[in-house]
Design goal:
Chain lengths: 115, 117
């Protein structure tokens, strides 16, 4: 059974710091990995999707990498801002589920960026 | 609409009551998913629809949970005889293609926060 782990559960950093959020998964048979952001009381916003054949994806100050063979992904946030404070979740889409692209999520990392 | 819409945003019910949660996916999206998110946890898969067909309901925790999507658009998740452990946020997501090799992101609604007293 696929398991997705995100450690630590919470992180607090001063504004302006570059930071890395980690995600690990146990089964490398995946189609893709997604990073989401969740604000309190809100749904999930997709940040980046990395296909299994890709190594990284970039969007603005965000960069996500994928090492499928070792079961690891990182989300790099450059020059963090207080507005980046949220919970960040990673999720994998396993192979062998046909057209059902259901996701397996980690528990998320709650990030607080201090002004 | 522009995004996935869920209603109600909040629902409080007494233990034993039945509840119905609604999801309006993005227009034209073939695939629809329901997830359950307990406090401090990541979302857990409940069920999946491709158009009106419920192709996977392996995540539904008990036979008290029932989902439908009769016309391939709006979906309803119904929970009968609610229990306290049903308290959670119920998230709906949709995505456009229904193919095996698709790599489209899922778009989530803001969820329904269900509290069972």
């Amino acid at each position: 059974k696929q398991e997705v782990t995100q450690i630590p559960a919470a992180l607090s950093v001063p504004e302006g710091e570059n930071l890395v959020l980690n995600c690990s998964f146990t089964d490398s048979a995946i189609y893709n990995l997604q990073w989401f952001r969740q604000d309190p009381g809100k749904g999930l916003t997709s940040l980046l999707l990395i296909q299994s054949s890709q190594r990284e994806q970039t969007s603005g100050r965000l960069n996500a990498s994928l090492d499928k063979s070792s079961g690891r992904s990182t989300l790099y946030i450059a020059a963090s801002q207080p507005g980046d404070s949220a919970t960040y979740l990673c999720a994998v889409r396993p192979i062998h589920t046909g057209a059902n692209s259901k996701l397996t999520f980690g528990k998320g990392i709650t990030l607080s960026v201090r002004p | 609409g522009a995004g996935v819409s869920q209603s109600p945003r909040y629902k409080v019910a007494k233990r034993g009551q039945d509840v119905a949660l609604r999801c309006d996916p993005i227009s034209g999206h073939v695939s629809l998913f329901w997830y359950q998110q307990a406090l401090g946890q990541g979302p857990e898969f409940l069920t999946y629809f491709q158009n009106e067909a419920q192709l996977d309901k392996s995540g539904l925790p008990s036979d008290r949970f029932f989902a439908e999507r009769p016309e391939g658009s709006v979906s309803t998740l119904k929970i009968q005889r609610t229990q306290q452990e049903d308290s959670a946020v119920y998230l709906c997501a949709s995505t456009s293609p229904g193919t095996e090799t698709s790599n489209q992101p899922q778009h989530f609604g803001d969820g329904t926060r269900l509290s069972i007293l």
